[in-house]
Amino acid sequence: MMKMWRIVVLVMLLIAGSVAPVAAQGKPGGGGGGNGGGPGSGGTCPTGTADVVLDPGHGDGDPGAVNSEYDLLEKNVNLDIAYQTMAILESHGYIVALTRYGDTALGNSERGAIANACGASVFVEIHLNGSTDPSVNFTSNFYGKKNKDLAFSQTMNGALSSLDIPNNGVGQFANGGLLHADMPSTLVEAVFLTNSGEAELLTDGTGSRQGQIAQAIANGVLAQVVG
After folding, report:
1. Fold of domain 51-226
2. How far apart are CA 67 and CA 30, in angstroms?
3. Domain positions in the chain
4. Residues 110-160: pLDDT tens digits?
């Protein structure tokens, strides 16, 4: 009987030893797990290194806010604004990376991981808001971790006042990208894509409104990194 128990114990130890290494195979630092991480969610910097990382929100099967009347998808406008913001910052001598350069899917934590991989000084998530009420329109900002992100979010929120719409201030949002990024980070909700007036400006063919939003975001970044 004693010999049988020894055999059982030995088998249990062997099983435990074979299972333990599997748990150690998870992505370092959480990757994108639990926040919709996708391929490469450990984070790779597309430019090798960058001073600023801009994250055009949504992408691929996630369109974000939608304005069917004006054929607007937030994911597309976000990307346009990100490219324009990048051009402005590059004209000031900064190296800028985007988390996506096309219509691709990314997990929230993966976006922050890319910023970490770039060793960026700041990380900005670019979004447009949405509502079932087409008259609603205001700008707002969100931070993930107070000590890390609040001051930058307040700086960015001040820069967005140039958009000449009501400013809803700064709030806290436990977003995977904001929480995962090591540097000062903010999520911008620049305007409401579903607002009729904004939709007209965004589709007037000039790109002027997108340019105004990009300039406001760039101003917020410059105020933070230049000090």
Report:
1. Aminopeptidase (3.40.630)
2. 34
3. 51-226
4. 999 999 999 999 999 999 999 999 999 999 999 999 999 999 999 999 999
Distance CA 203, CA 201 (A): 5
- Dump the DSSP string for 102-125: SS----HHHHHHHHHHHT-SEEEE
210/202 Cα distance (integer angstroms): 7
pTM (2 decimals)?
A: 0.82
